[in-house]
Structures are given as C-alpha cells and as structure tokens.
Amino acid sequence: MGTTFDVLVVGAGAAGLMAAGQAAAAGASVLVLEKMSQTARKVRISGKGRCNVTNLCPPTAVLENIPGNGRFLTGAIHKFGPEAMLDFLAAEGVPTKVERGDRVFPVSDDAHQVANALEHFAKRSGAIIRLGTAVSKLLTDATGVTGVRCGDGTVYRAAQVIVCTGGGSYPGTGSTGDGWTLAAAVGHTVTPTLPSLVPLRTKERWPTDLSGLTLRNVSVSLVSSLGRDVQFGELLFTHFGVSGPTVLTLSRSAAVWLAAGVSVDMHIDLKPALDPDVLDGRLQRDFAKYSRKQIKNGMNDLLPQALIPIVLAAADLSSEKPIHQVTKEERQALAKVLKDLRLTVAETLPLAAAIVTQGGVSVREVNPKNMESRLVPGLYLCGEVLDVDALTGGFNLQAAFAMGYAAGKAAGQRSRETT
After folding, report:
1. Is the pTM of this model over 0.85?
2. Which of 222, 226, 388, 395 could form a disulfide with 65 if both were Cys (CB 3.0 to 4.6 A apart)?
C-alpha cells in the first residue's frame, strides 16, 4: 500500500464510509483509516441492533428534529435527505420498511446489513479501508492540511482529509473524542460536550421498585428555572431512575440545565387524556365499583399494580384504607398526584452511556455547503465530531449520512480539479 492518496478519511462509521464512497466514486484515490477492528461499530448496535437508518419525512421535518445546530445542515439535508438514503440502500440491496413515527429500518431488522452495505459501497467505489489504525495527528502547512500521522508513526499524505471520528458516546465502538483532539490541535474550537439521548438518574429511590415497568401514553415534563420541556409517549422506570423515548428526548434539556447548576424537576401526568373534572368522575365510578375493597385493591383498572402504592404514598393515603372511607379531599389529592407525579433529576448517566453527544467542533468554523474547515483548507469535518445532534427517530444517522455525502462529494471533486 502506498502512502499518498487524494483523500484520507479518518473513521469508518456512518459519515466516514459514506464520505469515502462518494469521494472514490468521483474518481479520487481514497484511504480510510479506522482504529477499530471492524467498520461502523456504532451503526451495528444502533436501534438495539435493528438500525433506525433514517426517518421518512420531508427535509424540513428532519431539520426540526435536529435541535443541535439543525440550521447548519439545511443544505446537506436537502441534497441528501431521507428519500436519497432509501434509494442508496435499495441500490445496495437493502430493502427497508417504515414503522411508527415514519422511522425507517431494514426489512431484515439487522443493523449489520446496513453497516455492511456502507462498507461495500466504499470498497466498490474504490476506497481502501485499513483497520486497526489510529490517527494521532493532522499534518498541515501554510497551504492547509497535508496528511496524517498514525499512532505507529506511519505518515499518509493527502491534500484532502475528512475527519469522521464520532463523538464521545458509546466509547466501546471507537467514539472516544479523538476527532476533537485532532481538530483542536489545528486551531478549531471544541464547544462543551454533554450527553444527549441518555437515561436520567433520580434522587428518589422508588423508581427502583418499578424497574422494568413501562408507562405508555403519559405526558412527561422537565421544569427548571431555565425553561420547560414536555414530551408525550412512553416512560420506562429503571433501577437508577427513568428512561424510555420521552426521557431520552428530554435528556438534552436536562443535561444543559444540570450543567448550568440549576435543579431539574420531572412532572409525570399519568392520565393526560383526562382533565381534572373527568378524572375525578372516573375515580368516583371506580370507587363506587370497589367500595368494599381497600384502596390499594381498588385502583387496578386505573394503574399498573406496582405503581399503585407509589401514587398512594405521594397522595399521603394509606394503602390499607377502605375505599368507602376515602374523603372528597383525599380523592382530590389522589387525582392531583395522578396528574402530577413528581421526581427530581439528580444527573444524567455519563456521556459514555448516551446515544449521541451534544457539543463538539464549532459549526461556525465549518462551511455548511461542503463540511470543509474555514480554518484549514482541505480539512473536512462531519458526523458527530461536529456540534450537531438530533432527536431519536433516525435523525442522527440521517444527519451523519448527509454530512458524509457533502464532504465526500466536495473532496472528490476538489481532487479531480487539482489533478
């Protein structure tokens, strides 16, 4: 293997393999350097091994689901959006299906199929992939980037280098913040990094007693002195606190507020479809139906059994109290808890446990048209290494594919123009 190429790609993940394939397809000689022993490790475990590869919604909707600098991706998403990604997968022999919330998965429910398709595309286009090779330094001169130095001392030369090393989440997949170190060493700003799409640890211990219980169709709010964030859907109790789709989405705000040093409270509306008057009527009917039972045995139509003692304790009601002895005031107190069961967020789980990182290389220092550095000509940055993060639903992978597409196309074209 030679040591001089038109384009070097650092990192063989979703963005890196897409970039490598696009650059090679444009006629560039491309070498991909990946420190792990396998490509696309994070893709292979995404979506619990099923890979929520994108979301079949209009580009504008994709951008609305990227709270972390979504505007920066306007051009990239319009050039390579969900429809283009589906066409790409179809061309690679990966049929897809659309599930609830317009989430797209491979028909096989096998994330490896998506990862292998990306690898195959890069290789078929002409890119060479070298595994087990960590990059330790970006090489530059007055003209811009000139290549990279690897951990073993090997130097590879290229006038175009694309850094796609991921963020800091799931370090076992290779995302250990290497790209931030590389970018910072050549003058880039790395904004503070925090976990996003991550479970929350609560100060209260009672969620431990409910570990494994999922609540569906609940409204979950986070409230702090800095704002309020609300989500509707599923919540999962865990041995340390709470998780599930609503919590993962809310965790972005929680991480920011906690980092600012303010307290964060969680409010769970267990019956969001019922206003207080309707809920009180429901309670009266259930209490009439089970009037001879203790209250802990008369609420099974309303709540999961494991949750009943928690709610009763929060309402300051004895589980043993006969239903016919419950006063109007006590019933109203119970209804209040059903509409506002409270927890206190102690902390997020660490960045290593997060699905994605918020923060990274500042997008102000990167050209959104082609992902090229505004500071170092020929250096491109894309994927989670940038300060870009999205919500769940396939939006993070779509963002990575779009950025890789833009960077690969640009680097490949630049290489062709200079040869």
Report:
1. yes
2. 395
